[in-house]
Give the backbone structure.
Amino acid sequence: MAKKTLPTDTISDYPKLVDRRLEQIRFTMEDLKIDSIVVTYLPNIRYLTNFSGSAATLFITENELHFVTDDRYEEQIKTELYPLPGIKTHISRDVWSYIKTAKILKEKSSLGFEADRMAYSDAVDIRNKIRPIKFKPAPGEVEPFTMPKAPEELDNIKKSCAIAEKIYEEMLDFIKPGITEKEIANEISFRSRQMGSESEPFDIIVVSGARGGLIHGMPSDKKIKKNEIVLMDFGCIVNGFCSDITRTIAVGKATKEQKSIYKLLRQAEKAAIEYVRPGMNGKNLDAAARNLIEKAGYGDYFQHSLGHGLGLVVHERPTITFRMDDQIVPNECVLAIEPGIYLPGKFGMRVEDNIFVTTNGGEYLTNAPDELVVI
């Protein structure tokens, strides 16, 4: 059952970039000739309002913001929502019936929606509910403006990165022959929570030996053997913001080939980080690293994209890949750069760091060793 609009008793301040995001969204609404838009993708809602719960809908009009959630979060939003100009909060478990009854969209002729984030069946159902208001697709309406990170958001990412790097350093003393991949992954998870991480942004990857050829292989009961390569891909979360690093080490001795490939990956990663600039095409950034790997004769063994955006979601836009030519890298976004080489039946290696994009290039938030670490 719908309840009355609640007074907003929120935190006293918020990142000023949020005002800019809303301004840009409203400019785009004018370009699309729509007088309101609904945001349903929860990460986008959090970027705009700070809401961290699991159920919310945000309506943006020319002068107002209508935030709708259910009664589970009635108390939470009083202290969590940003004190945005024109924001009004509503409690209901039936959003679209409430919107109609409360006349939230009164005198509105069109409502845009995140067509790339909403199921077709949901869009058809909502369109029927809000007639005669036109329900118009507005893909990419919000996310281009959430890619650049506010200083407060960047600070959370930096804290998340610091935890991840500390865990890696501690794992060098933990890993030894006879321990299993699962035991390593469990220890990473346990230590990350101890150090303040809220959870894992993705399933931790730990693969060793020939299993290193599994690019996204899950940890197994396989025991680490002497003279094997171990690859660990993991991240942390601080106040909702993610880190994502990959570290590759050798247990025992490393071969000349392994040392050479690791050095090549580090060179490729550095080349991309030095080359990155705001406004460039992600495809060209991918090429900065991929060309080095191909020239060295390993192009067929680097099968995935070079990287991706990083924020409230561990894989955000832009996608840094040779497969797409419409991904533009904005200023002040955070990227994960992760070149890798995987030799079937032998071993796999990946180097992954997180960077902040500036007009002077990429600023390292994490920094992998230049040489293959042997323990």
